[in-house]
């Protein structure tokens, strides 16, 4: 596949990418009363973190790495991680680093350079290796820091800081919390306290905090079934709740926490009934599309995305391109949500009033943080027309 070069030379990682950009303009106009804005690194950290949306991982050892990233950009993926850790065998590290560096150089000044591109390193020393090897390439936004805990938190973040200073540009860090010290209850408080201090000290470099649910489950010999969500696995859900409680508060200490990976994308024999209600699809004349989602195991993913949001998380780690559409469809702000948020933010004096849609009460003080988060999502993912929901967005992306 030929790499396109229609991006302006001034383009750099994380500037200009736009959710739903791959849809035809006429389709976007039909779906959105306010279309998504282009991503900008001048945004607040929280809004920029929300813009990650579905973050797609790809092994660094793929021989067509630059072409894959280019295709995914054309398909509407905004953020990707080139993986040097779990996806790469021990003996392939040198080759993987070379492949990642080559891809980042090739992507520089191409249309795909506007994506939010990260490298998941295996160790802190790889941060310096990669940042120096890419030279003046402007396509790398930062680094994903695996198995981030009390023992390595400061080392990782100092490495990102030093790489930024040497390169004369800003690299973001995204720690992944997945280690035994965080999952095991007797050591969790200590690790989260040290991590909290570290990310607070380096707040200007920490874009978001990611959760490694697969490693968490692996500590107990668990692999969740595709008919279950991560919230059904109590030991993992308990750790996730503690992470959000300590690091995801809506105050000056908090960070955006992203949803854990969904592992499945193939057909299988079901044990439980599908998780998707039929009514929303019947109303849109898309019962056939519901059947397609169930066959592709996306019904469980949609349910988990909704639970991620209910538990205070934004976006999600994904391992298959089909998952990105689901995450983004459920991230767009409905007309009703948007007007509820505007009503809540209209005054800072408190009080209660009925919503514009006359179906709920909006309390201005307790709902204020929620409303601010909705406004951020609206800027990133757009506001849909009245009556347009996730089914309309999913079908539009599936058929585009």
Describe this protein's structure.
The chain has 400 residues and is an alpha/beta fold. The chain folds into 2 domains: 37-324, Alpha-Beta Barrel (TIM Barrel), CATH 3.20.20.60; 337-373, no CATH class. The chain has 17 helices and 12 strands. The strands form 3 sheets. The protein has an 8-stranded parallel sheet with strand order 7-6-5-4-3-2-9-8, with helices on one face. Helix 3 (65-74) crosses helix 4 (93-107) and helix 5 packs parallel to helix 6. The radius of gyration is 21 Å and the shape is globular.
Please describe the topology of this protein.
Layout: H1 25-31, E1 32-34, H2 45-50, E2 54-59, H3 65-74, E3 79-83, H4 93-107, E4 116-120, H5 125-133, E5 142-145, H6 153-167, E6 172-177, H7 180-183, H8 185-201, E7 210-211, H9 213-218, H10 234-247, E8 258-262, H11 279-283, H12 287-295, H13 298-310, E9 314-318, H14 321-329, H15 335-345, E10 352-354, E11 361-363, H16 368-381, E12 383-384, H17 390-399
Parallel strand pairs: 2-3, 2-9, 3-4, 4-5, 5-6, 6-7, 8-9
Antiparallel strand pairs: 1-12, 10-11
Helix pairs in contact: 3-4, 5-6, 8-10, 15-16
């Amino acid at each position: 596949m030929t790499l396109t070069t229609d991006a302006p030379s001034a383009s750099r990682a994380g500037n200009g990418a736009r959710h739903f950009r791959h849809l035809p303009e006429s389709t976007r106009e039909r779906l959105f009363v306010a279309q998504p804005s282009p991503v900008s690194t001048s945004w607040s950290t929280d809004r920029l973190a929300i813009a990650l949306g579905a973050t797609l991982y790809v092994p660094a050892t793929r021989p067509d790495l630059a072409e894959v990233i280019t295709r995914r950009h054309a398909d509407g993926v905004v953020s990707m991680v080139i993986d040097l850790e779990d996806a790469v065998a021990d003996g392939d590290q040198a080759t993987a680093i070379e492949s990642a560096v080559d891809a980042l150089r090739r992507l520089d000044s191409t249309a795909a350079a506007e994506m939010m591109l990260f490298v998941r390193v295996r160790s802190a020393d790889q941060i310096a290796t990669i940042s120096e090897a890419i030279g003046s390439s402007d396509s790398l936004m930062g680094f994903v820091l695996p198995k981030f805990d009390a023992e390595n938190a400061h080392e990782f973040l100092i490495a990102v800081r030093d790489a930024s200073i040497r390169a004369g540009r800003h690299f973001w860090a995204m720690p992944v919390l997945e280690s035994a010290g965080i999952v095991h209850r007797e050591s969790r408080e200590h690790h989260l306290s040290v991590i909290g201090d570290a990310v607070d000290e380096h707040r200007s470099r920490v874009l978001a905090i990611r959760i490694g649910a697969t490693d968490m489950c692996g500590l107990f010999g668990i692999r969740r079934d595709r008919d279950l969500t991560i919230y059904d696995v109590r030991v993992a859900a308990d750790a996730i709740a503690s992470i959000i409680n300590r690091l995801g508060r809506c105050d000056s200490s908090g960070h955006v926490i992203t949803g854990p990976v969904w592992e499945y994308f193939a057909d299988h024999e079901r044990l439980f009934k599908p998780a998707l209600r039929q009514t929303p699809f019947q109303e849109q004349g898309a019962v056939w599309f519901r059947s397609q989602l169930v066959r592709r195991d996306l019904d469980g993913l949609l349910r988990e995305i909704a639970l991620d949001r209910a538990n205070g998380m934004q976006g999600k780690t994904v391992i298959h391109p089909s998952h990105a559409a689901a995450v983004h469809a459920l991230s767009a702000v409905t007309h009703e949500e948007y007007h509820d948020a505007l009503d809540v933010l209209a005054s800072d004096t408190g009080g209660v009033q009925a919503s514009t849609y006359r179906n709920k009460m909006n309390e201005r003080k307790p709902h204020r943080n929620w409303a601010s988060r909705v406004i951020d999502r609206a800027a990133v993912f757009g506001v849909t027309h009245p009556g347009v929901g996730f089914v309309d967005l999913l079908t539009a992306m599936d058929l585009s």
